[in-house]
Amino acid sequence: MDRALRKLAELRECGFQFMNLPDADGQLDRIMGFRHLRGYLDSLVFRSETEARAGRIPAVHASTRHVRAVWLYEGTLSDTIDRLLELPLPGAPTAPTLAKCGSAPDLLPNGLNPFQLWTPPGATA
Fold first, then answer.
1. Can you tell which superkingdom this protein's organism belongs to (predicted)?
2. What's the distance, CA 114 to chain centroid?
3. Burial of 71 (0-12, 13-18, 19+ CB in 10 A)
4. Which of 52, 67, 69, 111 sits CB 3.0–4.6 Å from 80 for a disulfide?
């Protein structure tokens, strides 16, 4: 667990924010970390040290379509964080850009407004 906690602290130092995701009864179900970076959202969702998923998705997408990731990875929490930290920054020649990976609706937090735009109650940016 110490290794995973150090990795989470490393993500925080790289600009990730974290939020708890409750289940239907209000109990902690998952933890999500995310950062907005050059038109993309890097995201991590995990339930335990052995169950984690990360991805990079375009920050702007059609709200009527499923979110398509340009990069996805699933594995242990430590391995997933390592792969996420190794991912080239958006705009780098080797950074993934084509939304050819699978759908990733679980990697986009509901109600997230990455540009801090004012929206009417109940709307999303």
1. Bacteria
2. 12
3. buried
4. 52
